Amino acid sequence: MRNVSKWLAVFATMAFISCGDEKKEKETITIGEDNTLEQVETTESTTMTDNAVSEGEAVISRDGVTEVRLTGNDQMKFNLKEIRVKAGDKVKLTLTHVGQLPENAMGHNFVLLKQGTDIPEFANKAMEAKDNEYIPQNSEQVIVNTEMIGGGEETSIEFDAPAAGTYDFICSFPGHYVQMQGKFIVE
Ligand SMILES: [Cu+2]
């Protein structure tokens, strides 16, 4: 019985971790075999607390406005891997840095990219744009972006949802896009 609940917990943990995060999944499996599952659960609940907002309440649409509460932390993670908004809605997105590290070490922003953008290529260009908060000057690939913020800071933007479809969003701080990216789905 103890084993059964242990494995249920492992599966629950794996389900909680968003797909596509291979490294994290491997970690979880290894830890499960080592019988130190409680440690995993502690780690996960810490992450939840860090991010403060659960996914269910992070995106709320009403009266033609979709409010998005996106957070980024010191572990280089967004709380959302997917943001769904209604076509025609105004989007009010608030990005909160729930960590403590300063902007120059762990800066986060939200950059919504046009469809067809090559993310690694864009991120390379962004890396060279330190003076412009890591947004390439005159980029035609950016639909909208927030400013770059550090631990404890918050920033908001408002924009009209682009045409229905699936878009990528990333944090353009050097190296962050690998972990800090997700899908922005307009439906
Ligand atoms: Cu970042």
Automatic annotation (TrEMBL):
Keyword Nucleotide-binding recorded: no
Membrane spanning residue stretches? none
Blue (type 1) copper domain location, by residue? 71-187
The record's annotation in Gene3D superfamilies points to: Cupredoxins - blue copper proteins
Q: Give UniProt keywords alphabetically.
A: Copper, Electron transport, Metal-binding, Transport
What's the short name of a Pfam family annotated to this entry?
Copper-bind
GTP-binding in keyword set: no
Protein name, please? Azurin
Organism (species)? Salinimicrobium flavum
